[in-house]
Design brief:
Number of strands: 3
Mean pLDDT: 90
Structural class: mainly alpha
Distance between the termini: 96 Å
Bound molecules: zinc ion
Strand content: under 5%
């Protein structure tokens, strides 16, 4: 990639980055850690945040106060251009607005998309920029479950503001994040997304869902991490077919044990609710008890009673 080219891409990405940060600051003002917010407010030149360099991978990531973009993506896309069919449908998408958040895309679908739509290097970077900007603003990404949550928050924001995103990131992990959001609710999941570490996360959950809720998170997080590391993350495949090989590895990830844990948690939840219901007094008893309780704190009433 020529220096001129890199500069042009950086300028373009910096504009999107600035817009995304403004929106994220507004949308998640109650959740972004204070120190991170202060840093975000102190950024003078958004171009300085963006680093494009060779990293032996086509992944994008955040380190410290920078977002890294792989220069090697340009090489791979340039090689793809010689394969017939590249860019055959410039408007190709992996989702409609209705299927942006919940879909069955895989990493292989995404590679196909890059090819069919004939993405430029800049477009390729842009489709992941929002996800990386979420990390940059404080959304955790250490581990499979947190990446799933980061991708869920990314797609929710893309949905609301019609921002560009791949709709294919962490396809299996996001499904578990959605399941957790169904249990914990959106506000708590926003808090979890911006939490610094597992210690903070377990405290947040414990305050709202007790130890069983916190245990659920830790259990799921560990199960996912083991599967993710063993079957996928540790593998490195160089060259133009590398991404495809890695995507095939990803397809072997099996989180069925996680779904069993989620299912059991829901069952227990239901049982507790039924038990509590059984303990509730009948309607008439209940009302009488409420009346007694109210009267017992009503001094005027008690004084009147004594007078009688
Ligand atoms: Zn991420």
């Amino acid at each position: 990639m020529s220096k001129l080219n890199i500069n042009e891409i950086k300028n373009s990405l910096a504009l999107d980055l600035q817009l995304y940060i403004e929106i994220i600051k507004d949308e998640y003002k109650n959740f972004i850690p204070k120190e991170r917010l202060e840093f975000l407010n102190s950024i003078k030149d958004f171009k300085d945040i963006i680093i494009i360099k060779n990293m032996g991978t086509i992944s994008m990531f955040v380190r410290g106060n920078n977002i890294y973009f792989p220069a090697s993506a340009n090489k791979i896309i340039n090689q793809m251009k010689f394969i017939p069919g590249f860019g055959i449908n410039k408007h190709h998408k992996c989702f409609t607005k209705d299927t942006l958040i919940i879909n069955d895309n895989t990493f292989i679908d995404y590679i196909k998309h890059v090819f069919i739509a004939g993405l430029s290097t800049k477009q390729f970077y842009l489709e992941t920029l929002l996800h990386e900007t979420m990390h940059f603003c404080g959304v955790g990404g250490s581990g499979a479950l947190r990446e799933g949550i980061a991708e869920l928050k990314t797609r929710e924001l893309a949905y609301k503001y019609n921002f560009t995103t791949s709709g294919c990131g962490y396809p299996k992990e996001i499904k578990i994040a959605i399941e957790l959001q169904n249990i914990f609710g959106q506000t708590l999941m926003n808090k979890i997304a911006f939490a610094k570490n597992d210690y903070e996360i377990t405290n947040i959950i414990r305050d709202n869902f007790g130890p069983s809720g916190a245990n659920l998170y830790i259990k799921i997080s560990r199960l996912m991490e083991k599967e993710f590391q063993d079957k996928y993350y540790k593998y490195k495949f160089p060259g133009i077919t590398g991404p495809l090989k890695k995507a095939k590895k990803y397809n072997q990830l099996d989180y069925s044990e996680v779904y069993t844990v989620l299912y059991n948690y829901r069952q227990n939840d239901l049982e507790v609710m039924v038990k509590d219901n059984e303990k509730l007094p009948t309607n008439k008893d209940y009302l009488l008890k409420v009346k007694e309780a109210l009267l017992s704190v009503d001094e005027d009433y008690q004084i009147n009673q004594k007078k009688k």
